[in-house]
């Protein structure tokens, strides 16, 4: 299985680069460029995740500025 993308750059590149990502997502080139410098905003999580899933890929939640879920064992107390 392929590793999930860990950066906005990886996601945008997988979508075909800045221009193609902008067209697919209905955003301006400047918006996508800003995402490369910062992160993909959380409100784009479902849209981008759906596209990535169609490609057989995923991205870490941190790419969207969200926290990674802890494993079930990490919260268990003895």
Q: Can you describe what's shown?
A:
The protein has 78 residues and is mainly alpha-helical. It contains four helices and no strands. α2 packs across α3 (29-37).
- Most strands sheet: none
How far apart the termini lie comes to 33 Å
Query: Low-confidence parts lasting 5 or more residues at pLDDT below 50?
Result: none
The number of helical elements comes to 4
| Beta-strand residue percentage | under 5%
Q: Rg, please?
A: 14 Å
Shape: globular
Give helix and strand order, one letter per element, not per position: HHHH
Which secondary-structure class do the elements indicate? mainly alpha
> Kindly state the mean pLDDT as a whole number?
91
Name some characteristics of this structure.
78 residues; mainly alpha
Task: Summarize the model shown.
The chain is mainly alpha-helical and 78 residues long. The chain has helices at 8-14, 18-25, 29-37, 45-54. Helix 2 crosses helix 3 (29-37).
